[in-house]
Write a structure and sequence with these properties.
By secondary structure, this protein is an alpha/beta fold. It contains 10 helices and 9 strands. It has a 7-stranded mixed sheet. It has a two-stranded antiparallel sheet with strand order 6-7. The chain is globular, with a radius of gyration of 19 Å. The N and C termini lie far apart (43 Å).
């Protein structure tokens, strides 16, 4: 069944990937109309999240953000498909780094790097970073249930020298690299809701007390990795600009949870600047502190 689904959907994705960008975004406009107005995909969740995170805005203002966020979501989904056939030259033109030297200076310290980023703007095209760095790049992701699509995603990333590892594989991968002296940069998208459990760290995000991820920080401290924040900005449709900011090059001297808290504050600031480019379709504030 998984293979049947794959052979039915793969040709559609490939055809989308070879479309010129002008036609790609015309298609995105059509998909947006279907997803937002006909299907209403997770519209209730997005509306609830916006009301929680942006209570200072009027209902009309939040509705404008809601529609823009769905439009961006459709753009990003089709851009993901475009990655199947996009050239290195094209992706470098569309996803630029304003201060790459900040990251490259961190590489010179000869420590592996934990790169923290958010589900904001284009987190998929961050893989283009591997065209500019010398460390081996690892992207931490949630494994896709369909093994054929899971392999496809891995193959696409490998084209840009990016290696996908699941959340379960991350700890052992970093440990093994550390023991072999292999330097790598590990991408952590650490802004979404962690699983409910006993070991939760609560902090204020968008004005609401909520648990936040601290796994990247703990692994960085365990294996003496440097930590950097990647901020992505959408310049215009199909074009993005990213910038780096070092969170710590001496992690063991930083109090526990401080790096994670600083990260989430930077994500918060990023969202306030342009909330329409954040991924609002997941329930971010579903855990309540007892």
């Amino acid at each position: 069944m998984q293979f049947l689904v794959y052979i039915l959907i793969y040709p559609i994705l490939w055809l989308i990937s070879i479309l010129p960008f002008r036609l790609l975004y015309l298609l995105s406009d059509v998909v947006y109309f279907i997803i937002y107005y006909i299907i209403g995909y997770r519209k209730k969740t997005v509306r609830e999240n916006l009301a929680i995170a942006l209570p200072h805005l009027s209902e009309k203002e939040r509705l404008i953000i809601e529609k823009k966020s769905f439009h961006h979501l459709c753009d990003m989904f089709l851009e993901m498909a475009k990655t199947m056939t996009i050239s290195e030259k094209e992706i470098n033109k569309r996803f630029k780094y304003s201060n790459l030297e900040v990251y490259l200076d961190l590489e010179k310290k000869n420590k592996s790097i934990a790169l923290m980023c958010a589900h904001y703007a284009s987190y998929e095209w961050v893989l283009s970073m591997n065209n500019h760095i010398t460390f081996k790049g690892y992207a931490i992701y949630k494994k896709i249930a369909n093994r054929y699509f899971d392999k496809l995603v891995k193959d696409i990333r490998a084209k840009f020298n990016a290696y996908l590892i699941t959340t379960k594989e991350t700890k052992n991968c970093i440990k093994e690299n550390n023991s072999k002296g292999i330097l790598g940069v590990f991408g952590f998208a650490s802004d979404q809701t962690p699983r409910n459990g006993e070991n939760l760290h609560w902090y204020t995000f968008m004005g609401i007390e909520t648990p936040i991820h601290f796994g990247a920080e703990m692994l960085a401290k365990r294996y003496d990795m440097n930590v950097i924040f990647l901020k992505v900005k959408k310049v215009k449709r199909g074009f993005y600009e990213a910038s780096f900011e070092v969170l710590s090059d001496d992690v063991k001297s930083v109090p526990n949870f401080k790096i994670s808290e600083t990260f989430i504050k930077k994500v918060e600031q990023q969202i306030y600047e342009a909330p329409e480019f954040y991924l609002w379709t997941h329930k971010r504030w579903k855990h309540k502190k007892s």
